[in-house]
Amino acid sequence: MSDLHDEAYTPTITASDVVYHGAVWNIRRETFDLPEATGLVRDMMAHNGAVAIACVDEQEKILLIQQYRHPVRARLWEVPAGLLDVPGEALIDAAKRELAEETDLRAGRWEVLTDSCLTPGGSSESIRLYLARDLELVADEDLHERSEEEAGFKFRWASLDEALEAVSAGEITNSIAQLAILQVARILRAEAAGESTRTRSVDAPRRLVDARESSSDRPRD
């Protein structure tokens, strides 16, 4: 087995304070010491973490959702995703909840594709990406009423060739959508060739810190 892997490490933290309380995210300032340097000060967005889902249907198409994202002033094609905003909720349960809320779907087969740090230089955000298959609609009485930006969702089932071309052409810029498309392409090609797909089970451990452990980072009412 390869020894190529990230290493969890907790430095000596000498100060940690929320310096800005935002509407959605807080900014935390920490002072810490490393063996190679001391007295380091960094500001970071305190993020709950998230889950995302690559949904693949029987025709081997991937489900994309178009959603408005204000910081970049664009409607981006993404995959279903959502925050880990329920204390103590298992990641797989969060993924199932978000899938139902955003797409009116549930899946009979789940696998872990990746764990990712999105902007580790300035945010604690991490995201677990799942592969979901054997899809079916949720019952009418369980439909979720979408609001705010989600009320403007558009949905599209895209072939892998179309999705890969859109990524290569710079037409799909959301990093998690790009990762989902590339990972699904890897999985489906391996399966077609009878090769190992190297996915992980839904209870696979992750090396990343669960930011939900710190309730003090939640925005104030």
UniProtKB/TrEMBL annotation:
Region named Disordered: 194-221
The record, for PROSITE patterns, names: NUDIX
List GO molecular-function terms, semicolon-separated: hydrolase activity
What SUPFAM superfamilies has UniProt attached to this entry?
Nudix
Q: Where are the transmembrane segments?
A: none
The chain positions of domain Nudix hydrolase read 45-180
The record's section on InterPro entries has: NUDIX_hydrolase-like_dom_sf, NUDIX_hydrolase_dom
Q: Which UniProt keywords apply?
A: Hydrolase
Pfam family for this entry, one = NUDIX
Asked if the keyword Transport belongs to this entry, the reply reads: no
Composition bias, kind Basic and acidic residues: at what positions?
Answer: 197-221
CDD domains for the chain = NUDIX_ADPRase_Rv1700
List the PANTHER family. Answer: ADP-RIBOSE PYROPHOSPHATASE, UDP/ADP-SUGAR PYROPHOSPHATASE
Name of this protein = NUDIX hydrolase
Lineage of the species this protein comes from: Bacteria, Bacillati, Actinomycetota, Actinomycetes, Micrococcales
